[in-house]
Amino acid sequence: MTLTLPTMPTVRKYRRETTEVSSCLKYMIFGFNVLFWMLGLCILTVGVWAWSEKDIFNNLGKVANAALDPAFILICVGTVTFVIGFTGCVGALRENTCLLATYAIFLSALLLFEMTAGILGFIFKDWIKAQAAIGFQSFIIHYREDPDQQNLIDWIQEDWLQCCGIEGPKDWDRNNYFNCSSRDVGSREACGVPFSCCKRQPTELITNKQCGYDVRKPGFPKERQIYERGCLRAGEEWIEGNLVLVAAVKVGIMILQILGICFAQNLRGDIFAQKAKWH
User: Fold this and answer.
1) Transmembrane segments in this chain: where (predicted)?
2) Which of 36, 151, 163, 199 is deepest in the core (most CB within 10 A)?
């Protein structure tokens, strides 16, 4: 009698297929851009809120100087930051090659714009200086009409550059409230300057909003406690004194943009390689 031994089942070894998509690269792009997404959303929200407070959405005729409106600038910056952060964040998380390509295109366009602006700014610096003077003049003219522009020019004069006017305090004669002829219509600010032109005293705890009254009158004491330097020259001196810092920040931003483009393209390549395995 022949005994038949039971055959042992064949054990097949399956090799676990590794993915081509780098998790480190994927979540690094996601984490970096989710911050930009939220930052852009916050900036956009503040800009829209500022415009709605001024009721510009219902009075579009006020948008004559929209390019100089801080609220409009916030809306533009917030929108660009939000879109770039959204495409990079969702594109990396969902491994969407279309969104990643859009993200890389946006960064490339922004990088090209910054490089072009930097080159043109160096070549046409006199024209840019003239445009800055025109923009600051518009701020002075509409100082009491737009609270955003008023706060911006006060910050420039008092906190940032410690200056007054474009070329000097006399430029505030362009404003109807500070013009010396406004004394005839009862303006208390006539022949004066805004408080942001005044030099803060070391012992001053509360800002004196009336410190600029009458400082440009002919009979006013010679020693005026206001900034005599114009903001245009002060801005030039600030750029010259911080040129290395400005250049370092600019180069750092451009390096981050180049890395973002490279990382997005590498992740797209990994996703395409993984899809090729499936087929």
Assistant:
1) 25-51, 71-93, 100-124
2) 163
Torsion of CA 210, 215, 218, 220, to 10 degrees: 80
- Kindly state the average pLDDT of the residues 72-84: 92
Looking at this protein, which amino acid is placed at residue 2? T
CA distance 57 to 5: 89
The CATH number of whichever domain residue 196 belongs to comes to 1.10.1450.10
Residues 181 and 161 in one domain: yes
* pLDDT tens digits, one per residue of 240-262: 999 999 899 999 999 999 999 99
Residue 77's nearest CA partner among 45, 35, 118 is 45
Q: Please say whether the beta carbons of 51 and 72 come within 8 A.
A: yes
Q: What are the residues facing 198 on neighbouring strands? A: 226
Neighbours of 97 (CB within 10 A): 16
Number of independent structural domains in the chain: 2
